[in-house]
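Consider this pair:
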Amino acid sequence: MILAKNREAANYRGLHSRLNRALELLNDDFLSSVGTESWYLEDEALYVTRFDYETLPPEETFFEAHRRYLDIHVMLRGSEGVEIAHPEGLEQFEHKGDFYAYRGAAEQKLILRPGMFLVVFPGDAHRIKMAVDGKPEPVSKVVFKILYKEQEPETT
C-alpha cells in the first residue's frame, strides 16, 4: 500500500512500467479528462475510470482484493474512509475473475481526500466508499487498474 499526495507521485516510480505510466498521469489536466466509461490506455493491462457516488455507512461496505491487478485510487472531490487488511485474516464471500470480496476487521484505517492517491497492490484488501464521521457525501475519484502480475499466483 502507498498513500501519498499527487505531487509526490514521481517518488514511487520504478516498481513496474505500467505503474510508472499511471503515476505520470496524476496531473490535473489528465485527471479532469477521465470519464465514467473505462479508458483503455494499454488494453486491459492499464485502464482508468472515474467514479461518482455517495459514501456509505461502514456496515454497507466490504473489502475487495485482487491477485493480478493493482489499483490506484485518486480522490478528486469529497472524502472517503478506507480500510486495509490482508485477505488471510478475512472471510471471503464472493469471487469473480480477479475480484475477491471479503468481510472482517481492518488492520489500517485512513481517509482519502482530494489531492491524494492510494495504491493497493495484489494482496491488499481494501474497503472503500465509507462515509467519514458517519456523514455520507458525494465523491468523485479516478481509479487506475494495472495488470501487475501476468499470472495468478499459486495458492497454498
